[in-house]
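Sat 14:20. Reprocessing the chain from the morning session after the first attempt stalled halfway. Input below, unchanged.
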Amino acid sequence: MTIRILSLQPTLTVARVAKRIDMLQRIGCKFESMGFERNLSTGRLPNCPVESLGPVEHARYVSRVFKMTCVVPKVRAAVGRNDLVYAFNPDMALLALIAGAGLRKPIVLEVGDIREVQVDSGLQGLVFRRIDRVLTGACRLLVLTAEGYNNYYQDWLGVTTPRMVIENKLDAPYGAAVRADSPCGRTAAPLNGRPLRIGWFGLLRDEWSLSVLDALTRARPKRYSVLLAGEPHYPLDEKKVQSTVAGNPAFEFRGPYLHPDSLSALYADIDVVMAGKPPTIPDAWSRTNRLYDACLFAKPLIVRAGSGDASLVQQHDIGAVVQAEDVAAAAAEIGVVEAEQWESWRANAAALPPEVHTITNEADELQAALAALVAGTKRSRDKRAAKAPG
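Finished this time. C-alpha cells:
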C-alpha cells in the first residue's frame, strides 16, 4: 500500500525534513510538502511537490499566527487528499489539527527541538506545557529526534501518545557513499607539527563555543586554528561572530553551506569538531548533528561534560569531554591534549559501526507505524459507514 503523506513544516528548506521525506519515499511513501519561507541559506528543499505558505520572520509570533490562520483553507484541501499528516514541530501540528478538523486524518508529530520556554519554571512554561499536553494528546504518533526527549513527554507531560525515536543520523545512501569513498579524513596522517584545525559547523548559536575557540587560539596560535561554516543564529549575535573572526587571524569563516552536500569538503579540511552544546535542560536531552557528521568522517570531538553528546563520546572514546565551565579554564583543558591523544580518538572514530551515525532500520520501523495508523483509520471509517442508516 502506498501511503500518501502531507508534510507540514515551519520552514521549507530544512535538511532534517528533506532527509526524512527522502527516507520514506525510498520505501514507497508518496509526499507533498507545504511550509513557510524564512530567510535562511542553509538546508534544502524536499524532493517532492512543494507549496509555499508564504514568508514568515523569526520570532514574530503574532504575525505568524495571523499567517497560519490565512492558510487554513489551503492546508485543509491538502489534508483531505492525503492519508495522513506528518507535522514537523508543534506549531505545524496545531495547524494540522485546525485545518483537518472533522476529516479524521491521523497526525504524526516529529519533534526536532525542545525549547527553553517549554521547561521554564514560571507561568509562561506552565502555559506552554499545557498546550503541549493537549496538542500531543491529539496526535497519533510522536517521532522524537533524541532519546532524552522522552524525559519531557513522559515525565514532565505524562502523555500516553505512542512514541518512537529516530535520531538525526545521516541518510543511509549518503553514509554508504562516504564510507565507500574513504575521504582523506578517515585515513588522515598525524599532525606532523602543523596546527590542529578545529571545525565548528551548522547553526552557530553557542557563545561559549565561540569564546573557548577564541581563547584557545589566542593562547596557542601556532598549535590551533579554527574553521567556521554555517550561519550565526539566535542567541549568538552575528556581529559577535564577525568581530571575533576579524580580530583573530587563526579563524576562517566560510559562511553558509549545504547539508550534506558540502560535508565532505568541510570535514576534509579539519582535524577535530567542536560540539559544545550546553549541559543544561533542555539542551542536555539531545545530541548535535555535528556528532553524527563527525563520527561518519572519523573526526574526534570536543564536547561538554553533562551534555547530550558526552555519553556517546565517552562510551566510544572519541574525543575530549571538557569539565570546565569557565571559558579560560575550558580552553586550557583542551590545550593540554597531546597530538597522540587526538590521533587515538580519530582511530576510534574510524572504527565505529555505521549504526552509530547512519540510519539503518529506522525507515522500515517508521513506515510500518505509519501504515498501521492509516489502516486503523480506514477500519474506523468502514465501521462508521456500516453503522450508518440506509
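The two ends are 30 Å apart (CA to CA).
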